[in-house]
Amino acid sequence: MIVQLIDSMASDLNVVQAAKVSTLGEASLQTGVSEGLIKYLMRERHASPFEHNVFRFYIEAPIFVTREILRHRISSINEESGRYRVLKGEFYYPPQSRPLRQIGKTGDYQFESGEDLWDDTTAALKQSYDLAWANYTELLNKGVAKEVARMLLPVGIYSSMHFTINARSLMNFLSLRTASNAQWEIQQIAGKMEQHFAIDMPITYAAWVEYGRKSI
Ligand SMILES: Cc1cc2nc3c(=O)[nH]c(=O)nc-3n(C[C@H](O)[C@H](O)[C@H](O)COP(=O)(O)OP(=O)(O)OC[C@H]3O[C@@H](n4cnc5c(N)ncnc54)[C@H](O)[C@@H]3O)c2cc1C
Questions:
Q1: How far apart are CA 177 and CA 171, in angstroms?
Q2: Which of 9, 67, 93, 143 sees the fewest Cβ atoms within 10 Å?
Q3: Which residue is catalytic, options 73, 150, 177, 213?
């Protein structure tokens, strides 16, 4: 899976300047970074100053992950289309480090390594992927529309998207999607986004961690 930061307009200074306009007006543009103010805003959930920061990511992930990303409405998303292009025959296989065995009940799942299940899991995935891909290309070769042929493809096929999100909404995304109860694959995606957040906005990031990695 790929998470690439294409562009960002993000800094701790943006947060402080946006917050200080309420008391300084035009002089807010000359103000410097204040760790204390950022911590105050985070603690009091005075959230809108964090919205003046934007991250734009390019993501390649299987469709079962892009479907989860798409649920985050406070973002801007464009995804590749199986109606307008022939999809690439690239399918996701869980790495050996990915926990495979699920125990516990709904809402309280635990995952264990399940290394003994890895060969069977990847073999079954390969069998399904190969069959689906053969049927997809056969239908396309017969002249069937892409939007129809794609109906048989599994959610393990890769997709790509541009995902643009402001820092406030990113904190909500990270809070939900780095949590241990989130799908393992989206945890990996969110973890990579979190690294960019920490680099571009180090004081904001530290405050977010200090106050519990919550949505604000
Ligand atoms: C572990 C986990 C399991 C999940 N399981 C399921 C599942 O089984 N089925 C399923 O359908 N979804 C599931 N979801 C998706 C989840 O319900 C959310 O749709 C998703 O996490 C996006 O979160 P969000 O609404 O906070 O984000 P965004 O859509 O980005 O919204 C950000 C914030 O804006 C506000 N907001 C946005 N839209 C509205 C609105 N219409 N009304 C009021 N406030 C709004 C809320 O404060 C929200 O937190 C799951 C998510 C997680 C993390």
A1: 10
A2: 143
A3: 177
